[in-house]
Amino acid sequence: MAALVIERHLSDQALRESEGRFRTLVELSPQVVWFCAADGQVTYCNPFWHAFSGLTLEQTRNGGWANLIHPDHQDAIVRRWQHALGSFTAFEVEIPFRRSGDGEYRWFVVRASPVHDANGEVVQWIGIALDIHERKQAEEARELLTRELSHRIKNVFTVVGGLATLTARRYPAAMPFAREFQQRIGALASAHEHASPQGLAGSGRHTFQDLVAKLLTPYAGHLHDRFDISGDDALVGGNAATALALIIHEQATNAMKYGALSTDIGRIRIQGRRSEGSYRIIWSESGGPTVPGPPQRLGFGSVMAMRSSTEQLGGGIEHEWAPEGLVIRLTVPLANLVR
């Protein structure tokens, strides 16, 4: 009996020490830690929240925390929290909270999960809020720079097309060439817009075949005269489309310089194949100059294309330098393709 009492005493002491360490860790955390009951009523916030918000626990309760959300986001975020409470599903959202000291809105990523008892009933929620304001600012600055670069590139296409037209006016015999050249420039500008992060964000997901057709149009007067796009199609998300656009553009440019598109009769076949959770893209060239073998060194564009295949798509790319034409095989996990 004495041994049981001693064992229980030691167990209780270890539990108190563990709880003390946990409370100290929570109270010293430089991020928000909070608990609430099963119905969403806040029961605890660590000191960081009170210092940041200027609210007491009582002021935070009964939805008081939501008053610190930027008005543009408040209603949508509260609805998402109510949905999580009603469905007992994990909650994660980015929220701009107003800081009490200077009134600045700072972005946090807020995560919460329900805690269940032995019977599977939700008894409380545990949540954290991490300050990501500097990261959001960096993302916005990068997006602004990307938009500015995209705009400047589109302007270059416009200027080049205009110069071709103006020059051809002095040489009437060159007008047919100038018109075709301007059409190619326009198609290239359209493909650039389609493959840019802004274009991808605006149009959502693509299919692989639609994306390829759009990107390759500038390289042929009539797409089907030089390209055969066939096989299984697949949805392509924005991130994957950006990487694929870089790879396709690089291969088409090389084909114009050295491969099938450098001759009048050359053709390129692009096939898509689904198999066991992956999507394989096969690029086959024919009708071009004889391929002597692999190049002695890879150019910058080729290196970037290979890095895109592995780092952005999580796949692999293989080159077969067949004498009759280059064959490229790109394999991408389907889960990565739709991102």
TrEMBL record:
Domain PAC: 91-144
Enzyme class: transferase
Keyword entries, A-Z: ATP-binding, Chromophore, Flavoprotein, FMN, Kinase, Nucleotide-binding, Phosphoprotein, Photoreceptor protein, Receptor, Repeat, Sensory transduction, Transferase, Virulence
Molecular-function GO terms, alphabetical: ATP binding; photoreceptor activity; protein histidine kinase activity
Record Pfam families: HWE_HK (PF07536), PAS_3 (PF08447)
Xref: SMART domains: HWE_HK (SM00911), PAC (SM00086), PAS (SM00091)
Family matches, as PROSITE patterns: PAC, PAS
Domain PAS: 18-88
Reactions performed catalytically: ATP + protein L-histidine = ADP + protein N-phospho-L-histidine
Residue ranges of coiled coil: none
EC number: 2.7.13.3
Descriptive protein name: Blue-light-activated histidine kinase
Biological classification of the source: Bacteria, Pseudomonadati, Pseudomonadota, Alphaproteobacteria, Hyphomicrobiales
